[in-house]
Amino acid sequence: VQLQASGGGLVQTGGSLRLSCAISGHTFYSAWFRQAPGKQRELVARISSGGTRGYADSVKGRFTITRDNAKNTMALQMNSLKPEDTAVYYCAGASRPLSLLMSGRDSSYGYWGQGTLVTVSS
């Protein structure tokens, strides 16, 4: 399985960006993680092959994760962006079924994209 993320960039506070991830191969769960400078990597959102979604509390109501199984793509629509959303965003995939608990852990994902930088200016 290979993943390739795209769509990062510079945006002002309150703006929007859409990240995309091209996925070669099947994944039971796909997710977006992010890592800000000096901080640990954290889950942003995840989605199962059946469409079950989960979000970090910090992005609920602002971000939407989608998945197109036919096109093997995943996207993250980010609205109402804040400076604290600034980070490198990574898409990740798990090639085995996961419990809801395990789907929130980065150690559950064996495949990672290269990361795309999102910068939100104040």
Folded structure, characterized:
- By secondary structure, the protein is an all-beta fold.
- It contains no helices and 11 strands.
- The protein has strands at residues 2-6, 9-12, 17-24, 29-35, 42-48, 53-55, 63-68, 73-78, 87-94, 111-112, 116-121.
- The strands form 2 sheets. Strands 2, 4, 5, 6, 9, 10 and 11 form a 7-stranded mixed sheet that branches. It has a 4-stranded antiparallel sheet with strand order 1-3-8-7, with no helix packed on it.
- The radius of gyration is 13 Å and the shape is globular.
Unreliable residue runs: none
Individual helix count: 0
The beta-strand count equals 11
Order of helices and strands: EEEEEEEEEEE
Radius of gyration: 13 Å
Average per-residue pLDDT, rounded, comes to: 96
Distance between the termini: 37 Å
Outline: globular
**% residues in beta strands:** over 45%
Largest sheet: 7 strands, mixed
Q: Into which percent range does the helicity of residues fall?
A: under 10%
- Class computed from helices, strands and strand pairing: mainly beta
